[in-house]
Amino acid sequence: MKTLTFQNSYIIGVISAILIFGSLVECRVPSSYNLNKVDYTAINCRKHSALLTDFGAVGDGKTLNTKAFNSAITNLSQYANDGGALLIVPPGKWLTGSFNLTSHFTLFLQKGAVILASQNEADWPQLPVLPSYGRGREAPDGRFSSLIFGTNLTDVIITGNNGTIDGQGSYWWDKFKQGQLKLTRPYLIEIMYSDQIQISNLTLVNSPSWFVHPIYSSNIIINGLTILAPLYVPNTDGINPDSSTNVRIEDNYIESGDDCIAIKSGWDEYGIKFGKPSQQIIIRRLTCISPKSAMIALGSEMSGGIQDVRAEDLTAINTESAIRIKSAVGRGAFVKDIFVKGMNLNTMKYVFWMTGSYGEHPDNKFDPKTLPNITGINYRDVIAKNVTIAGKLEGIANDPFTGICISNATIEMFVKKNAIVENGVHKVKLPWNCTDISGVTSNVHPQPCALLQEKKVDCPYPTDKLPIENVQFKTCSI
Ligand SMILES: *[C@@H]1O[C@H](CO)[C@@H](O)[C@H](O)[C@H]1NC(C)=O
Ligand SMILES: *[C@@H]1O[C@H](CO)[C@@H](O)[C@H](O)[C@H]1NC(C)=O
Ligand SMILES: *[C@@H]1O[C@H](CO)[C@@H](O)[C@H](O)[C@H]1NC(C)=O
Ligand SMILES: *[C@@H]1O[C@H](CO)[C@@H](O)[C@H](O)[C@H]1NC(C)=O
Ligand SMILES: *[C@@H]1O[C@H](CO)[C@@H](O)[C@H](O)[C@H]1NC(C)=O
Ligand SMILES: *[C@@H]1O[C@H](CO)[C@@H](O)[C@H](O)[C@H]1NC(C)=O
Ligand SMILES: *[C@@H]1O[C@H](CO)[C@@H](O)[C@H](O)[C@H]1NC(C)=O
Ligand SMILES: *[C@@H]1O[C@H](CO)[C@@H](O)[C@H](O)[C@H]1NC(C)=O
Ligand SMILES: *[C@@H]1O[C@H](CO)[C@@H](O)[C@H](O)[C@H]1NC(C)=O
């Protein structure tokens, strides 16, 4: 027993020594140390980390930091097979040109960190055109690399405590409007041919063109983004999954001059040949403001096909249309198995909009006999206020859009102050205009067009989960 007591007091002594030594050590570290410990959630945590400033970066908003980003990421790429690495972008304004990401890597923007895109074209390298588009969307020859670019990667994360990435797009918008660009405008973030991507908890502003463009990729989570572009600048789409599979887009707020989300899969003969659909996509809790475009567009480039898209709990304010399907002769492929549930809409030109005559071909080599198959389009549980046209559903002659289902939709029409009253009812514009389509409706107000037959039905919404819905975030700390 004596020995034990001795041992116990010895142990207590050692513990006190450690505690005292520990607190002495603690006294020497800056008091901000604990404040700097940050928890965040991610698909993977990283074993190694470094600060952007370790690589000579200067956060004054004036010094160009492209070299610092490149050497930091090259340096950290050595840890890809040793637990991965995280690059911290501290508070400050970090001007940079385009840079490339690497695998098993996290770019982390601390609160107050702003990545500022250079407005000097020399800082934006040129990339070859996308094979599924056959040309640049805006100029035939080539395209500028996105600000943050990645290709052929596995496990790449861009996140932070709501840090900001500012594309400083006004330079590009002006030149685009004046027809002065020889290449297609850059995107803010583009990830190609990659697997396991997370983009979350950031504010993205003023992209030169599209904001977030995953293409030829899979297993993608995009959440907690605030995306802000002026409401009247063209092509500032928010999130554009393109020829990508298994995508989860949740809790995003988007204000855009173009579609808040646009799902795509290549353009006419190039997209048909490339043949990679966008599929298994879930969108939840989106808020959108887009007076010139759609909350969610499918197409118009859809020549690899779009299928199994689920969207629920959507809010749009002052937006041209809710869901819009855009296609054309020559596109081929399909848009099918689209499920939408729960839309809350306020001030909108069209709630339901389908266009089979969108046009816009990459060149005149498209085959006008190659028609898209648009079928299995399901909408339910819709409340809309202040709407100009409830539905404009326009298929293609001899290629009707089929299997349309709309149930439980209440649409309040916008009534002009001086609207004519007939039989006690304000005359509004024809609320529905349907051509070359077929389908059913149930409990929809105002009464739909005759091509949508009344039938007692709840339009389907899948009850199974997509594989990406089972991916759990880990809690990591820096
Ligand atoms: C993003 O932020 C929200 C709210 O602060 C938090 O709950 C969530 O875990 C974060 N998600 C990611 C992926 O970092
Ligand atoms: C880059 O990595 C090497 C280890 O390979 C390390 O010694 C070096 O200090 C790193 N460079 C910087 C600027 O941190
Ligand atoms: C970034 O990747 C592109 C495409 O692979 C390549 O052309 C470019 O040289 C890379 N840039 C750097 C700085 O490595
Ligand atoms: C990236 O992956 C694509 C498709 O697998 C392949 O064609 C291309 O050569 C790869 N590029 C690089 C730089 O490895
Ligand atoms: C992130 O910042 C934006 C812009 O300041 C703000 O509107 C948004 O509410 C912030 N998000 C979170 C989760 O704090
Ligand atoms: C369109 O696709 C559906 C579902 O895959 C199929 O049943 C139908 O035959 C196709 N229609 C045409 C015209 O190819
Ligand atoms: C009809 O839609 C509203 C609004 O989304 C929803 O609250 C309600 O539960 C739906 N009714 C049925 C019977 O599904
Ligand atoms: C209703 O919509 C009209 C035209 O689309 C718009 O001018 C008006 O401000 C909207 N009213 C409300 C209350 O939002
Ligand atoms: C209905 O839509 C068709 C096809 O887009 C168009 O040609 C026609 O003018 C529209 N009718 C009305 C009354 O708006």
Automatic annotation (TrEMBL):
Signal peptide: none annotated. SMART domains: PbH1 (SM00710). InterPro entries: GH28_Enzymes, Glyco_hydro_28, PbH1, Pectin_lyas_fold, Pectin_lyase_fold/virulence. Its main location: secreted. It comes from the Eukaryota. GO terms for molecular function: polygalacturonase activity. The keyword Secreted applies. It is found in: Secreted, Cell wall. GO terms for biological process: carbohydrate metabolic process. Keywords: Cell wall, Glycosidase, Hydrolase, Secreted. Belongs to the glycosyl hydrolase 28 family. This is Pectate lyase superfamily protein domain-containing protein. It comes from Trifolium subterraneum (Subterranean clover).
